[in-house]
Specification:
The chain is built from five helices and three strands; from the N terminus they run βαβααβαα. It is of the alpha/beta class. It has a single domain, classed as Rossmann fold (3-Layer(aba) Sandwich). It has a three-stranded parallel beta sheet with strand order 2-1-3, sandwiched between helices. It starts with a strand and ends in an 11-residue tail after the last helix. The C terminus is likely disordered.
Length: 134
């Protein structure tokens, strides 16, 4: 059995679709046999509201933004996810703060078809092998 994968999306739904499709294809799954996944679809307006309060020169001003994503990671962990990805660019610059108290860490930022799939392959969360490329 493979580990359950979590995906934080919604804040950039086209990226959510791309990550979901890439993970499913990487697993070697057919359309009727997708890997075990949970998606936390966050509200873009809430993320932007929190981001609007953030100032580059004030670490504390990022608290609402960091917390919004941290809580989503916690919900994914509570649902049994052992691995997660965030399908959005801005949260990746805040990973140390977002993941500070998280029981799971998201994949590294980057192209889901390259950097993130390499990590999935390395950790064998999906049972993917190097001889089973996308």
């Amino acid at each position: 059995m493979t580990a359950k994968i979590g995906l934080i999306g919604g804040v950039g739904w086209p990226a959510t679709v791309a990550y979901y499709e890439t993970i499913c294809r990487a697993s070697g799954s057919e359309a009727i046999d997708a890997p075990d996944m949970s998606i936390e679809s966050l509200d873009m307006s809430k993320a932007l509201e929190a981001l609007g309060k953030a100032r580059a020169d004030d670490e504390d001003s990022w608290a609402a933004f960091d917390n919004y994503f941290s809580i989503a990671l916690g919900r994914l962990a509570a649902s049994g996810c052992k691995l997660a990805a965030i399908a959005s660019v801005t949260p990746h610059i805040r990973l140390p703060a977002i993941t500070r108290n998280s029981p799971i860490n998201p994949l590294v930022p980057g192209n889901p078809t390259e950097a993130n799939i390499k990590i999935i392959k390395k950790k064998e969360y999906l049972g993917i092998t190097l001889d089973n490329p996308l």
